[in-house]
Amino acid sequence: MATAAHQLTPDEASADPPPEAIVVRFAGDSGDGMQLTGGQFTLSTALAGNDLATFPDFPAEIRAPQGTLFGVSAFQINFGSARIDTAGDQPDVLVAMNPAALKTNVEALKPGGLIIADTGEFGQRNLDKAKYVANPLEDGSLGKWQLLPLDISALTVEAVKPYGLGNKEALRCKNMWTLGLALWMFDRDRAPLTEWLRTKFAKAPNLAEANIAALNAGHAYGETAELGAMGISQRQVAAAPSEPGLYRTVTGADSIALGLVAGAQLAGLKMFYGGYPITPASAILHALARLKEYDVITFQAEDEIAAVSSALGAAYAGSLGVTCSSGPGIALKTEAIGLAIMTELPLVIVNAQRGGPSTGLPTKTEQSDLYQAVYGRNGDAPLPVIATRSAADCFDCAIEAVRIATQYMTPVMLLTDGYLQNAAEPWKVPDMSAYEAFPVAFHTEAPAEGEKFLPYARDARLKRPWVKPGTPGLLHRIGGIEKALGTGNLDYSPGNHQAMTDIRRDKILGVDVPDQAVEQGREGGRLVVVGWGSTYGPIASAVRRARARGQDVAHVHIRHIWPMPNNLGHLLASYEHILVPEMNTGQLKTVLRDQYLLNAVPLNKVSGQPFTIGEIEAAIGRHLDSDRPEELGPDDTQLPSPEAVNP
């Protein structure tokens, strides 16, 4: 480990306090292993006790053309000694493995931030691919940042030379060299990563040792190269305060999978997951496939329709049916979701939103499926909609989706998005004994002699009974044609259709959801920022900063999108102005206006990237400074600016 040459005095320490948070972004080609590098740096950061949030950002192509601007893969992590809600606005450190990675990411770097660039990749061919006229490492164009040019490629090849790898295989280790340097820079322990590499390459020990050698070489370079002469030294970030307990790092996909299993256990049900591969939803299928010991059956169907239909069939048979997709796949599932509403069977549908429409932006994030979730079916076909706010929150939201589906005999849509699916954060593993079970009671009692079983009879919640096929005396038929009240027989009569439509509506409107809380601030005031889903982090941080400056602003974040909390309309009406940031063109804003006749003002961003704290903070300032926020023009409610678009 590097040692300090000078012991800081208390006065010196207070004059230059250690940073509370640091943002690092790794960027390179899709084949450079940036996601793996970022993931392992995240592991080391979690083990160091820092709070953290990550943002993996990668192209849709499996392997985009090497060196091209659209083939850049990046991983950003924000870690610190205090609460972290987002992956950070501007990186403090950018690791650029080639010219394209530098060009697409450098403008996001803080002024004075550090660029670590692999000079071995800055040849004329790669410069041309990145559309650089001159080498930016040499022409002075990077003057507002610190620059550490290193021939990482050559240093890696030299480090792994004893293992006899070919040049191509040797260069695949350069992400480990880079990771080693990053571990030195932030005083991280290499031992867990060394163990991980030996496990990963257990069948190829030569590759394991080569990668470990590259990792150690990068770390040793930081220790011995006297980088302090260039103003670059180790930066230490203290552990964040946390409650005692068992912690693990989870992505949103991991958390949803665990929450679905926990929900099924609390309901006393086996779970059947029917899915079809689609980005970014596939990770949930992968996670659940590893949990078979918890009575989980996973089925990769031949298409989206087969996936949802198999899950619905499992629900009819008495299991918890679950399916997952993204917007295009949800569109294909819509008819079967309507069948689930008509048959009134419990089904959890996870929608991992991505940029659209059509194929759109498969690996980028968006919140543009809210209309689809609330309104997007033929006929009057309501279902409950729940939105997750963070990777850790996905666990509780999944349990809530299972609870509502089984207690009200209805399909439920759980909204997450590409950012939450892939983002990671520390999660305190909960004590499951603190969760209230909601065991399912199947109807097993046959009717008295001379009476008929009524599969569409209602209890106080308007829920119909759930009967496993084959239960003696309870033979019944369900399907997609309108059901007669009580009997479930086919009935086309106008009065019956009106009555059944009203019952289906009233059942959903009667779902018990908790009252809406105020996240920050008080009820009533000048401005409230209303969000849903993954905008939670940047909104919470922006409102916290605004309130620290004495601004009269509050934060309300909605989990239950439909039905909405009973007190929500009254709560929002208590504020003078309502600002609704969304990664769409204003969908929640429209729902709020529709339901409560409130003048909610949108703040929209549809770029495939999450909001930054600064964007929301600036919008808060504009609204508080304006006498009539509702009259702010399109330039005040549309993000990002044209200058932010990549060349």
Biggest sheet strand line-up: 9-8-10-11-13-12-17
Structural class by secondary-structure content: alpha/beta
For the residues shown, what is the average pLDDT? 92
Low-confidence stretches: 1-17, 640-647
SS elements, strand count: 20
Instruction: State the helical fraction.
Output: 25-40%
Return Rg in Å. Answer: 27 Å
Compute the separation of the termini in Å: 42 Å
Number of continuous helical runs: 21
Instruction: Write down the overall geometry.
Output: globular
How many strands, what sense, and barrel or not for the largest sheet? 7 strands, mixed
Residues in β-strands, percent: 15-25%
Keywords: Oxidoreductase
Domain Pyruvate flavodoxin/ferredoxin oxidoreductase pyrimidine binding: 271-433
Domain Pyruvate/ketoisovalerate oxidoreductase catalytic: 31-219
Protein name: 2-oxoacid:acceptor oxidoreductase subunit alpha
Kindly describe this structure.
The chain has a 7-stranded mixed beta sheet, with helices on both faces. A 6-stranded mixed beta sheet has the order 2-3-1-4-5-6, sandwiched between helices. Strands 16-15-18-19-20 form a 5-stranded parallel beta sheet, sandwiched between helices. The radius of gyration is 27 Å and the shape is globular. β5, α4 and β6 form a beta-alpha-beta unit. The longest helix has 20 residues. The N terminus and C terminus are likely disordered. The chain is an alpha/beta fold and 647 residues long. Pfam families: PFOR_II, POR, POR_N. Keywords: Oxidoreductase.
